[in-house]
# Entry
Amino acid sequence: MVGVPGVGKTSLCREASSSTGYRYVNYGELMLEIAKQHEVASTLQGIFELPLDSQYRIWREAASRIADQNDVLVDLHGLDKSREGYLISLPLETLKPEIIILVESSYDTIIKRRINDRERARPVEDWKTLKQEMELLRTSMAVCSTLLNSYFRILDNDEFEESANTLKYYL
Amino acid sequence: MVGVPGVGKTSLCREASSSTGYRYVNYGELMLEIAKQHEVASTLQGIFELPLDSQYRIWREAASRIADQNDVLVDLHGLDKSREGYLISLPLETLKPEIIILVESSYDTIIKRRINDRERARPVEDWKTLKQEMELLRTSMAVCSTLLNSYFRILDNDEFEESANTLKYYL
Amino acid sequence: MVGVPGVGKTSLCREASSSTGYRYVNYGELMLEIAKQHEVASTLQGIFELPLDSQYRIWREAASRIADQNDVLVDLHGLDKSREGYLISLPLETLKPEIIILVESSYDTIIKRRINDRERARPVEDWKTLKQEMELLRTSMAVCSTLLNSYFRILDNDEFEESANTLKYYL
# Structure
């Protein structure tokens, strides 16, 4: 499951996981768990401040751990955004998802969610930047599904109950 | 030649094939021919009801047969749509087309053609779903042309005569 | 740095190169230099009139020469357009850019620049064709960044000074 921050991906994943046999894995949380085990960082922010090759090792280890499991629902952004630009965050060489589900929602809804979700300190972007990010994520995920020969679905998350039911139907 | 159902791809292919040296091959019909030879199915619907690995074997055999030929105009959707999601249907590992021609048309024209073409029982979708399907097909074909280093053309099929002439000019 | 003809890519590259440590390389000019060394053509037009495999050899040699260098800013279209269709012109097998920067601008601005730049005899296309070309370039570059694991940035070139400053900030 991929989608931009604020699209409501995590809530949908948790709901779908709790009512199906799929185990929920949050990619960021798994990276944090690994960083703590190696005693290199104790927060997500701490990971992002590590040298790039250390971050990369943690990211790869997370991918390997997920690849060893079946019936797992992985929650990740799909496309990271930094000062240097966008970078694909789906570990193409390690993970081969059966289905890539891209969660989308209206720009307004996403921006509202980001404003309200102050706890997670999400970036509040203008409409144009968000549009660009969502278009690139869609393109990138279409690329990944072609390369990996995975099914590709787009799930509109306009109304939570309905989207959660649609998601359970796919799984 | 790729395009969504109802875009008028088959008529264009047949017309262009009859007036050029290119032999017309319909991917679905070739799969049916193979299924009949192996006595596993006698209709396209029958193929879709086979186990996935059997369908895959037929699909791969069709690709191999086409790969052995020159000057051939292959007619296929490019992107299949099932309950699980979209799945690329261009056999990337076997076929290396010189040119990928994506046929497009207005949403209205496509929906009208689908409604009128009851014989082939085509799905009549709403505007939004069709738009998504066409955008994904375009992205997927751009991916394939990049991976295969094939030329990529978009052919608007708004007026048949004109589109057929444009197509003959490409070939 | 990639972008359609007339987007203002070359001016941005030269400006950014002159004020940073990056050496500017124009892909077309490098191909011309190579063609002259091999005495096969003396103008860019002359290169395009060579047999395709000769053009390809020059294109590959240019890629190899660039690949041997560090801190280089390469200026190329990214997507070539010919009678046969669009064809990716980023040498994926040879070059692995750290960042792919796609320069974009409004359709009007690009068309005006092409009209005014008679010296370079640029194609003046209608709005619809330009839109298609820019969308395909964006998709193709997203594909390349996914395949190469390169960062991907989109740089709006609406106001030169501002865009040049943004570019220097990335580098």
